[in-house]
Amino acid sequence: MATAAAHAHPLSSISKPVGDWVHSIAELTQPEAIHWCDGSDAEYRQLMTELQQSGELLKLNPEHFPNCFLARSHPSDVARVEHLTFVCTTNPEDAGPNNHWMAPADAHAKMRELFKGCMKGRTLYVVPYCMGPIDSPYSRCGVEITDSAYVVINMALMTRMGRAALERIGREGSFVKGLHSTGELDPNRRFIMHFPEELAIESFGSGYGGNALLGKKCHALRIASYQARNEGWLAEHMLIVGLQNPQGETHYIAAAFPSACGKTNLAMLIPPGSMPGWKVFTVGDDIAWLHPGPDGRLYAINPEAGYFGVVPGTNPKTNRNAYEMIRRDTLFTNVALTADNDPWWEGLEGGTPVIDWQGRPYDTKHGPAAHPNSRFTVSAKKNPNYSPEADSPRGVPISAIVFGGRRRGVAPLVYEARDWNHGVLVGASVASETTAAAIGEAGVLRRDPMAMKPFAGYNFGDYWNHWLAIGAKLKHPPRIYHVNWFRRDANNKFLWPGFGDNLRVLEWMLKRCAGAAEATETAIGYLPRAKDLNLAGLDIAASALEQLLSVDAREWRTEAADMGRYMDEFGARTPAALRAEVQALQQRLA
Ligand code: GTP
Ligand code: SPV
Ligand code: MN
Question: What is the mean pLDDT of residues 558-578?
Fold first, then answer.
């Protein structure tokens, strides 16, 4: 039988808690070998070679896409599985109606059966990682045990993985324990279990993204949000972007949009030609950890070190930065191929797919060539606009928080909340059409408070309360906004050009923060008039702008009533101050 002690390893810094845990998991899962990851380049190259030899990775055209690879996942394993994702707290009320719940003992027993002997004939990889800059007091470490080399290389790109993380764990003692096996990829034997009270994650039966890269959604959002509530900070599904205006001042914005609703693209935005002098710096594209700072402002770090981004739609016009970034040193998952062995996806605008994402000859009767949730994995260092502040242990000060959703109607292009507490209602009211990022029907409107519906590790009622408490602690709270890039006209076409032109909306926000932009007061908050936005060089019909910047009181009365009903689901845990915000909104709309 394999044990940790039986396998030589080059790392001298393994602490007893880590060693003991790995030993016990090896006894349970019975791997043939144990590999302790050190995070070195040599290790990465070795794993890439092994994955090519086993056929799990295909090398893409080395002239057009140097050092780029393609992985194809099992056709049933292409996205997060919210219906198989559980938060296992002692008291079901603590998980809340927003999560699936299982009693911790039952969940452990169920998972133990699945993990028993599951690594026979396989290698068990021990992946120590640090979420956040390795020297930041805000960072948190974990160890993922996995039997997937694909997961290891993704974790190497997405986190600070290896020796330094293991050393920090040795010094700190505590770490998040994440156990993962791809199992047989049987959807009937697939579960993603979270034990926030034990700082533990158990994931079986999927090798994909948020189900398997446990540092990401499982640790940095579900477990971290639970820890953050106890410790007085926030773990959020937010991008972090730095915007330098033509005067040379840089301000940072954090924005929460649901999955596949524009975070990566906003974080990597390219200013339109008609806005000279603006520069954009990416700090993060998916997750932000936010801490009240000693000066009464809110500070953000990005716990991740790479991007796991949506591929479809990426082209030189929508986002030249992302398009260029993924032409080298990138791992693609579930894209199509051209005859030249180049990656291809819907919305690329050029090239012809020959092989689809499942490796079959491309045929329109099978649907899209690339899977709609096909992804790129790439180190953040490859982003030409990677912020010099992204590795700062203190984080960056946040001037504005933005919430948004994908909504064909109702929500205007942008509005500003009246104050922090109203802003918490604005965030809690986010509703968005579902996307391919999770298994299930796409395009269905649902409530997705703070874009955290799939990711909050505890009861939303308590979570909103915590948001209110954080605001009360801040002497200089960020202003709060809501945006909607996805409003459509009667012909189902987007009314707003989006992408780089979104900077026009961000400019208005920053001017508002500086007291230098006008707005009109409406029942739902402050909206810019067309003349308050910088529209220089933008070709947009006046009628489109009018729709984008209007508030229909009748629609909003329905919206407010629906929000009130949604909050009722959380019963006594919904903060009274938030109910009061709904009532005040309803009075303003009456
Ligand atoms: P996750 O990684 O799933 O959390 O997604 P994300 O929020 O980072 O979304 P991303 O930026 O990858 O965008 C998802 C899809 O929306 C892509 O197909 C984009 O091309 C498209 N998109 C992004 N921004 C805009 C926009 O401003 N307007 C329009 N119309 N589409 C956009
Ligand atoms: C999301 O679904 O919000 C993602 C991709 O960012 S995953 O890592 O699969 O969660
Ligand atoms: Mn995401």
Answer: 97
